[in-house]
Write a structure and sequence with these properties.
402 residues; alpha/beta; 2 domains; three-stranded antiparallel beta sheet; 17 strands; binds iron/sulfur cluster
């Protein structure tokens, strides 16, 4: 039977950098777009995709909607053999009617629109290139093109953001009725523009209590509107959970294509180089090369117990790939717990037992006793899950399984 696989495709180009962003993405390198897609197509050829049942495709970035839609179409045509969910991330500042229609025509069936806020002042402050009205226009074009499955990204914990801003956002969501909403807290990353603005005192973050109030306000309101809170940051109408992300939280396998893309196959986590020029160079002429250090056929990425010489595997650096983690069975079990606890339903005990032939209640009894005692998790029937308090202190819970 063909193995199921998810595919992530990274498009590392943006019109302009947002002030909080530390994703691998480049502004002002439009001259590299054509070469990039040539390299990307060559990289696809280094995998035996016909051996897999590719169930989900996620095109993220960067800003995939920044590049000409002909590139997106070419990539989809190369990798899609009947995936059930095909998502593309869209930035309202880069969209046209023609792009949205082409996405639809090439089989993309889910749009993830980066709105972040419905307040134009906040959008400007964090360096977004679009206004709320431009978002509304994108949303309208998407509906007209026939997109049903639309996600809207929102951010909380922004400098100068108030509960009133979120009330406005929720009212707009109520009118628009997207099938999915993702809510992310601002994370201040080192080296970003916003970090400098905060350390110089130009901007101030809301305190932890207000940030938590924002989270709970959005959660409660979205639930009242009929969204299921199914993962720490994600809410969906019935039947519209993100299948691609869900599979990642279920520890299913995926490959990442493109600069800085990460993959998870056979218990090995590896990544492509995050240097755009290097990526282009590495894949410029590599198409059709057989057996690139175990990458042509992913089965050749050996399991840890079979690894005699790690350097041997690192040969797959011929493709610029970097091994980040070769998981032992123990690592895999811990990660299964960690990922499972991101989901609001929690870790499915019988699924853990079936996968690892071990009872997680027994294996992790010390950690679980402690976390239950502090009311951070609860064990309910077949599930181990975060409590409401655990949602606020999820990092403390995950630490127990690292
Ligand atoms: S559009 Fe997205 S990837 Fe690009 S700079 Fe902004 S947050 Fe980063």
């Amino acid at each position: 039977m063909e193995k199921e696989l998810g595919i992530y495709v990274h498009i590392p180009f943006c019109k302009k950098r947002c002030s909080y962003c530390d994703f691998v993405s480049y502004a002002g390198k439009e001259d590299k777009i054509d070469q990039y897609f040539k390299a990307l197509k060559n990289e696809i050829e280094t995998y035996n995709l016909k051996d897999y049942n590719v169930t989900t495709i996620y095109i993220g970035g960067g800003t995939p909607s920044f590049v000409d839609s002909k590139y997106i179409k070419e990539i989809i045509q190369k990798i899609n053999k009947g995936a059930i969910e095909l998502t593309i991330e869209v930035n309202p500042g880069t969209i046209t009617k023609q792009k949205i229609e082409e996405y639809k025509n090439c089989g993309i069936n889910r749009l993830s629109i980066g709105l972040q806020s419905t307040n134009d002042n906040l959008l400007k402050e964090i360096g977004r290139i679009h206004t709320y009205n431009e978002f509304l226009n994108t949303y309208k074009l998407a509906k007209e093109a026939g997109f049903e499955n639309i996600n809207i990204d929102l951010m909380i914990g922004l400098p100068n953001q108030t509960i009133a801003d979120l009330k406005h956002a929720i009212n707009e969501i109520k009118k628009l009725e997207p099938k999915h909403v993702s809510v992310y807290s601002l994370i201040v990353e080192e080296g970003t523009k916003i970090e400098k603005q905060l350390s110089s005192g130009e901007l101030q973050l809301p305190d932890d209590e207000l940030e938590r109030q924002m989270y709970w306000y959005v959660k409660d309101q979205l639930e009242l509107l009929g969204y299921e809170h199914y993962e720490i940051s994600n809410f969906a109408k019935k039947g519209y959970k993100s299948k691609h992300n869900w599979n990642c939280w279920e520890q299913k396998e995926y490959i990442g294509l493109g600069c800085a893309a990460h993959s998870y196959l056979n218990g090995v986590r590896y990544a492509n180089t995050d240097n755009l020029e290097e990526y282009i160079k590495q894949f410029a002429n590599i198409a059709g090369v057989e057996n690139i250090g175990g990458v042509k056929n992913s089965e050749k990425i050996e399991r840890p117990e079979e690894i005699k010489d790690l350097k041997e595997i690192k040969n797959f650096n011929k493709c610029g790939r970097i091994i980040e983690e070769v998981q032992s069975l123990e690592d895999q079990k811990n990660e299964y717990m960690l990922l499972g606890l991101r989901k609001l339903e929690g870790v499915n005990i019988s699924a853990f037992k079936a996968k690892y032939i071990e009872n997680p209640l027994y294996k992790y009894r010390t950690q679980l006793e402690k976390l239950v005692k502090y009311n951070l998790i609860e064990i309910n029937g077949n599930y181990i899950r975060l409590t409401n308090k655990g949602l606020d202190f999820a990092n403390l819970v995950w630490e127990e399984f690292v």
